[in-house]
Amino acid sequence: MNSSITKSSGVRKGAWTEEEDTLLRKCVEKYGEGKWHQVPLRAGLNRCRKSCRLRWLNYLRPHIKRGDFSEDEVDLILRLHKLLGNRWSLIAGRLPGRTANDVKNYWNTHLQRKLISPHRQDRKCKVSLKITENNIVRPRPRTFSSTKNIVSLGRNDSNTNTVDKDERCKQISTSTCDNPTADDGVQWWTSLLANCNEIKEVDESPSLLHEEISPTINGGISNCMQGGQISGWDDFSADIHDLWNLLN
DNA sequence: AAAAGTCACAACCGCTGTACA
DNA sequence: ATGTACAGCGGTTGTGACTTT
């Protein structure tokens, strides 16, 4: 990581210095996140906007958790990855303090290896893994209100456009999990499914979850409850089964 | 002790989706 | 309807740290 590397355009590349970090931090604190194209100018950094954004998101943002992933976190990653595939930002969104880059790196260095060669034991990770190939939920666009209001989804909106379901999941998650708690992931699933049910009720279009949702979701989530995080998971998984039948 | 191999992670690159004129 | 700019994402790379031989 050569911090002195400079692009032909004159933009700095490579590792960030303390000084650059300070400038970026102050800039974001002053102007807030977003408008990343303006950040290099505002902060007086000779970096591209992508570099600034990444540095902030992955390193400078407050409350970023460092160090090893807990067993719970690993478990959640595995289950979410089983369902969502390489949607690192979505997965990271369910892991408070973890960034998409963290999750991706952890997956690539720790977990994927187990998929490829399960016999090989990781030196650090003690979590026993049983990973099976499953169909991945691949969000597909569908039409719904451009207001992006979850409550009014599919209801009497003449103005429609296509929006990735992920975005809606994010909305769902942010609306219910802004202050992540220990059962954060559980809440997310609950709200996701609740929302799916709601949408089914208000919108008879069968295309909402037209992705290849595997029935194994049922088993996966049922397993997810084994940590004693919450009671009544039999009902929960039964609901999922109902949902699955409904969607089919 | 040194060389080779492996790991961990920060950072970059290219692509896609979205907003807006 | 189209083009452009921007934001964000996932894949990949580079390199220092660590471990093994």
Automatic annotation (TrEMBL):
GO terms for cellular component: nucleus. The keyword Repeat applies. GO terms for biological process: green leaf volatile biosynthetic process; regulation of primary metabolic process. PROSITE patterns: HTH_MYB, MYB_LIKE. Keywords: Activator, DNA-binding, Nucleus, Repeat, Transcription, Transcription regulation. Gene3D superfamilies: Homeodomain-like. Residues 8-60, 61-111 form the Myb-like domain. GO terms for molecular function: transcription cis-regulatory region binding. This is R2R3MYB. The gene is MYB114L.
